[in-house]
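Re: Re: ligand-bound prediction request (bumping)

Still looking for help on this. To restate: I need the protein modeled with S-adenosylmethionine bound, output as structure tokens. Inputs repeated here so nobody has to scroll up.
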Amino acid sequence: MNAKASDGRSLKQMLRDRVNKQGWYDTPDYWDMKAESYEGLARSNWPSNRYNEHVHRRQMATLDRLLGDVEGLRIADVGCGTGRTSAHLGRRGAIVTGWDFSPKSIAAAEKEHADVPNLTFRVGDVFEAPEADQRDAFDVVMTLGCLTLACKNADDFRRAAQNLIARAKPGGRVLFLEPVHASRLLRRILRMSMREWIRHCEALGLELETRGGVCFVPSRILLAYRDMLPANLVTPVFDGGEAVLDAHPLFERLADYKYLVFRKKH
Ligand SMILES: C[S@@+](CC[C@H](N)C(=O)[O-])C[C@H]1O[C@@H](n2cnc3c(N)ncnc32)[C@H](O)[C@@H]1O
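Reply:
Sorry for the wait, this slipped through. Here it is.
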């Protein structure tokens, strides 16, 4: 007899999906469940909120450095989860729209960041083409840890990237901060190297401005799942890993998250 899960998948398929992380990270149900069952940053990120605080600090500092002054800029944050990045940019004066396909993450984002001005959250899928008033409308279009979960292969990536690029004004920026990995061990769902990512984006009319990496992989393996180290050791371990990444561009391959900033050609 072939046992089936309640959603009709066979157990073999479920195991295969678990290894490939498909049918979990790429479904709104999974993120709805996280939004309801976890607390704080863990609703959209790693189980350890101690680690998440460090990742948040590092990722937001990276965005600030890459984007510069965002006062008055229109920014689209696609796959915004519970809205930490949208709110950060909104507090710095940007006019931000956050999209996510998880209705419960969007509800949590609206509730948590109700005090931030010029911030709108919407339920939406990265594979849906943007509505007419959302096309060529944003100075910056960004994803943080969304495309590498949403896309199974290069075809998916091109479809999603096209929808993102369509949202950017000509001359506007498209920024990815994503766990871009070709290795089976480190990739999320999408298996794609930095070289392939850049090649696809250039074919879709983007020009690369800068690239690099943050969030040292060994710290993530040690710290993200359980609070194993005492609090006073977590900061030096995390910061030490980031110092390695900052020491030389060659260490980019040791970064869990890669940043790529592109300019949309006129
Ligand atoms: C790892 S979380 C990151 C959330 C947020 N960007 C952050 O860094 O806190 C990935 C997010 O991508 C969203 N997502 C995954 N696939 C999506 C899709 N096809 N369309 C829209 N959002 C998607 C999930 O719902 C989830 O909130």
